Amino acid sequence: MTGATPRGELVSIPTDTTPLDGLLYEPEDGAHAGAVIFFHGNTMNFYVGPPRFLPPRLIAMGFACLAFNRRAHDVLSVRGDKERMEGGAFQTTAEALADHATAADWLAGRGYPAPVVIGHSNGGMMAAPHVAERPDTPALVLLSAGRGGPAETQRDGLLAGSRLPEMRRRAEEMVAAGRGDELMLMPGWWYVITARSFLDRITTVPDLLAYAPAITCPTLYVRGDTEPEATFPGTRFRELTAGPCESVVVPGCDHFYNGHEAQVTAIVADFLHRWVSP
């Protein structure tokens, strides 16, 4: 650790619609270890979870850190017009992947062309195709990254759960009637979504394991022991990935690392110290 103190800059990254807001942290004595980019989980944002609790330690190691909101952050939000909502209820896979690429390009323009990628939950799942297309990525950290794939292969209770056929039919009818951007109440997390986004969620989400053979950089997969391996497949990912991979299970830990932030931070910092940090 260098003893450097963080310097955070509020940034707004342009897209073809709404900007991606976030914070760029840079060590006072320079980012001699490179940079880290964070991909947050579904319905989350840059100031909760790993994008909040990891940067202080990584900045002290000499990394610049970019934590930002995708256009689909939180569940629902408004920006200057109460008639125009945004948030996770409107998310599509294509938009999420585009936001990750846009933020990475913006970071390259700031002098950090090949950052370490750290993704939590859906952000980890979406990190796999991002990194597979960028072989110069120095390392990938997957924090409770979901298996993904079609709805039938995803965790029971996710989105429509046992009511998947019913909700699918309803969403298809709404889209066919030109009501694809209207909100639907869901029987479980994340509670509300547009018909168009729902159909996208159950058909286009990438399969994490399918991308593993294309990832050649060192990878760390972390999950809590309350999270089932079938849904959060760290062991199977380690077996399939083309590069060196470590899989760590944290005892007594949940999906959001509540009460285990320091332990998870130490695991991530140790991995990056061994594989990336000079």
Descriptive report:
This protein is an alpha/beta fold. The protein contains nine helices and twelve strands. The protein has helices at residues 50-53, 55-60, 93-109, 122-132, 164-176, 195-201, 208-211, 234-240, 261-275, and strands at 6-13, 20-27, 34-39, 63-68, 77-78, 85-86, 116-120, 140-143, 183-185, 192-194, 219-224, 245-250. It has an eight-stranded mixed sheet, with helices on both faces. The chain has a two-stranded antiparallel ribbon with strand order 5-6. It has a two-stranded antiparallel ribbon with strand order 9-10. Helix 3 (93-109) crosses helix 4 and helix 5 crosses helix 6. It is globular, with a radius of gyration of 18 Å. The model is unreliable at 1-5 (pLDDT under 50).
Set down the secondary structure blueprint.
Layout: E1 6-13, E2 20-27, E3 34-39, H1 50-53, H2 55-60, E4 63-68, E5 77-78, E6 85-86, H3 93-109, E7 116-120, H4 122-132, E8 140-143, H5 164-176, E9 183-185, E10 192-194, H6 195-201, H7 208-211, E11 219-224, H8 234-240, E12 245-250, H9 261-275
Parallel strand pairs: 3-4, 3-7, 7-8, 8-11, 11-12
Antiparallel strand pairs: 1-2, 2-4, 5-6, 9-10
